[in-house]
Amino acid sequence: PWSFCFVGRLEKAKGVERIIKAFTALSEEDKNKISRVDLVGDGFEADYFKNLALKSGVEMNFHGFLPRNEVFDLYKKNHYFLLPSDSEGFPKVIAEAMNFGCIPIVSDVSSIGQYINKTNGYLISPITSEKLKEIITLTFNEKEHVIKEKAIVGAQVSIKFTFDNYNTRVREEIIKTN
Questions:
Q1: By Cβ atoms counted within 10 A, which residue in 47, 74, 169, 170 is the most buried?
Q2: How far lies 177's CA from each of 50, 161, 167, in Å?
Q3: Is the pLDDT of residue 28 over 60?
Q4: How far apart are CA 139 and CA 80, in angstroms?
Q5: CA–CA dist 24, 37 (Å, integer)
Q6: Between 92-99 and 68-77, two packed helices, what is the crossing angle to 10 degrees?
Q7: What confidence score (pLDDT) does residue 161 get?
Q8: Residues 42-100: pLDDT tens digits?
């Protein structure tokens, strides 16, 4: 069974409601293909989302805020990372999740589409719960080698967002020292 996670503020703008509605709309057959959905974070709308999730027919675990190492452990246990948000810059949480093998299913907003594409994840456009449901359903039919390749390519992309890479680029492209 597949597992999914979200890490961020629990609010509609980050897509938490879309996540819950997408899983709720899945067929019973598809719901049986899911082991769990982990949601990490908190926010003023948390109680609303918890109540909405009770009707989803899918195990949704609300973890609240977690220490970094526990978030990393959740990434390691999940197959897919969800971020169907309204707007973003390039959230480091996507690269962080890819580093641990989570395949991103994320909104095609801002610069995200410059790093996430069909080789390493899935872009949600338009940003609706229906489109997210469609992509989740698509993941169930992907061949194993395609999923593994997406995870490998994603981990390679995540290297671009390390502090070492950032420092190297600053030295070579801005400061121009050796």
A1: 74
A2: 52, 21, 11
A3: yes
A4: 9
A5: 12
A6: 60
A7: 63
A8: 999 999 999 999 999 999 999 999 999 999 999 999 999 999 999 887 688 999 999 99
Q: Tokens representing 113?
A: 């589409």
Residue 115 clears pLDDT 80, i.e. is over it: yes
Contact 58, 4 (CB under 8 A): no
Residue 71 burial (C-beta neighbours within 10 Å; 0-12, 13-18, 19+): buried
CB neighbour class for 52 (10 Å; exposed up to 12, middle 13-18, buried from 19): middle
- 3-state DSSP call for residue 81? strand
**Cα-based distances in Å from 34 to 29, 59, 60, 137:** 10, 8, 10, 11
pLDDT tens digits, one per residue of 155-175: 887 766 666 766 676 778 888
